[in-house]
Amino acid sequence: MSSKKQSPNQSQVLKQRQEKASLLEASGVFLFPNRFRKDTDIAWLVEGFQDYSQEALAESDAVYSLAGRVIFVRSFGKASFMHIQDFSGRIQIFVQRDVIGPEAYTHFKKFDIGDIVGVQGKLFRTKTNELTVNVEAIELLTKSLRPLPEKYHGLKDVEARYRQRYVDLIVNPRVRDIFRIRTDIIKTLRKKLDEKGFMEVETPMMQPIPGGATAKPFVTHHNALDMELYLRIAPELYLKRLLVGGFEKVYEINRNFRNEGISTQHNPEFTMLEFYWAYADFHDLMDLTEELFAAIAEQVAGTARVSYQDQDIDLSLGWKRLSFFQSLQEIGGVKPEHYQEYEPAKQLAEKLGDTVPTGEELGKIQARLFDLLVEPKLIQPHFIYHYPTDISPLSRRNEENSQLTDRFELFIAGREMANAFSELNDPRDQRVRFEEQVKAKDRGDEESHFMDEDYLRALEYGMPPAAGEGIGIDRLVMLLTDSPSIREVILFPHLKPETPAE
User: What's the 3-state SS for 13-43?
Assistant: First the structure.
């Protein structure tokens, strides 16, 4: 949301808020005290007493201390109804002058929607049968100096929602639910991997040599060491160093940073799960991935069948598995003679509207064809495996065909969800692949790998046969919350700076 000059009405509302705050302070009311202590969450009350009648509630002398933000007020002079909201839910409260006293009620009348209050009281049911707190004491905990949007049920301006996520979370229950589900997804991933003997680790976020993915890194400078550092594009090469060191099952859930465009599927910083498993191959990872996704869906949605953007997707076990070239033929409709040789493949990509740089490898052109003709059609879960070696610089070559690698990508709802492969642990082959990447970088490919001599040295000590995988957490959350944009599932997505107010 670009900043705009405040309307006269907005300026007046802000002025009124300031005046109310000054009047409260002048009458001895602290605007930002920190002495109230809540003992009950709203959801606990609502869920615990939803079946209690008024008669049953009247038998209890229990007094509850709640705190929350005022989101609705209906006043009748000497009495008022309010709705307050905490992190867990919303409840109605009933405030009467004769109960809290004239002075307290005078102060209370200067409270606004958006203020945070603490209340103490007993439960009862109104004539409309709504569970309500009969307030015996109310205290201002935080004075809101800026009003919430007029329609408290939601911000409508999408950019304003992302830029002012704090307001979005207050007024849009759906948004709060998305981030609760996000937390549940990550907790479930951790639980399942821990149960299978994987160990969670942390690896450097700033690296002297970026590696582990094909991407352009962000660059920074460390003053004390007087050296250039890169925000990591992936933790892969460090996690595999741990396999060399003797750990056999490791994982990390953390941020990656890639200096790329912003879209509904891309944000410059994003969350990845990467895990590595010694003495396993990419087939083992397919089985594990199915198990993880099905378990997560059951945990957060109660079923392995989910709906995403009006498409029913079945995450239960038994996903389709196709080789890369099978998918080009069977799903993309590309005949072998149109992708097996360089010139026909290049001509087809350009006919489809793509631009192929001079000297680009055949494997990269084949990947372009896949992106255009196959990926959008992969709605149900598909494992696509045996990718060309040209586009898989860290993957183990297939033993029967050295032009292919033992790698797969997982696609759901027309987008990549995971990338995995049997790991390349031959340092001689890895050196040749790095050298090819360096040549590509010299030709202007900013996403190609750097030469990493220390990683090669680690492989020379011996890395056990292994398989590794990366799963995009943000895209997984998008899928399981039916969110069309990655910005919906990142609390503070990147945006252009606001235009200064006039």
Answer: HHHHHHHHHHHHHHCCCCCCCCCCCCCCCHH
Q: Locate the domains of the chain by residue range.
A: 8-148, 171-332+374-488
Q: Taking residues 182-210, what's their average pLDDT?
A: 97
How many other C-beta atoms are found inside a 10 Å radius of the C-beta of residue 321? 14
Per-residue pLDDT tens over the stretch 259-279: 988 888 889 999 999 999 999
Residue listed under structure tokens 């890395």: 463
Q: What is the pLDDT of residues 297-339, one digit of tens each?
A: 999 999 999 999 999 999 999 999 999 999 999 999 999 999 9
CA distances 257 to 63, 132, 266, 333, 487, Å, are 50, 48, 11, 35, 15
Say if residue 83's pLDDT is above 50. Answer: yes
CB contact at 8 A, 105 and 118: no
Question: Maximum distance among all alpha carbons in the chain?
Answer: 88
| CATH code at 8-148 | 2.40.50.140
Q: How far apart are CA 325 and CA 197, in angstroms?
A: 35
| Chain centroid, CA 413 distance in Å | 17
pLDDT in tens, 113-164: 999 999 999 999 999 999 999 999 999 999 999 999 875 445 668 888 999 9
Element (H, E) at 401: none
> Which superfamily does 171-332+374-488 belong to?
Bira Bifunctional Protein; Domain 2 (3.30.930.10)
In whole angstroms, give the CA distance from residue 187 to residue 114: 32
Cα dihedral 305→308→313→315 (10° resolution): -60
